[in-house]
Amino acid sequence: MEVSINQKLTDIPENQSVHQLVLSLYQSVPRGIAVAVNQAVVPRSQWTGHLLSSQDQITLISATSGG
After folding, report:
1. Any domain includes 6
2. Which strands sit side by side in the sheet containing 33-37, from one edge to the other?
3. What is the value of pTM for the model shown?
4. Do the Cβ atoms of 37 and 57 come closer than 8 Å?
5. Which domain holds residue 10?
6. Domain assignment present for 67
7. For strand 57-62 and strand 40-41, is the pairing parallel, antiparallel, or unpaired?
8. Alpha-carbon distances, residue 21 vs 2, 12, 67 (angstroms)
């Protein structure tokens, strides 16, 4: 199914959770990452149970250090 990740159209498997998506992109769950689906933040505690749907707009935000 097709979703948008940081404004880039991407095909992902059906019935994929936020947690599975993050693992597929990063190989492990990094610290300092936030996920929003359709402009609503999904708490990390809900990543496993939050299934993605076709046409979802997903925003991944990574904290960076420096100045």
Report:
1. yes
2. 8-11, 2-5, 57-62, 33-37, 40-41
3. 0.89
4. yes
5. 2-62
6. no
7. unpaired
8. 13, 8, 30
Residues 6 or more apart whose CB falls under 8 angstroms from that of 45 comprise none
- CATH value at residue 6: 3.10.20.30
- Maximal CA-CA distance, the chain: 40
If one counts the domains in the chain, the total is: 1
Per-residue pLDDT of 9-53, as tens digits, reads 999 999 999 999 999 998 888 889 999 999 999 999 999 999 999
Q: Is 51 helix (H, G, I), strand (E, B) or coil?
A: strand
Residue 20 located in a structural domain: yes
pLDDT at site 67: 58
Token reading at 37: 């689906």
Domain assignment of residue 31, yes or no: yes
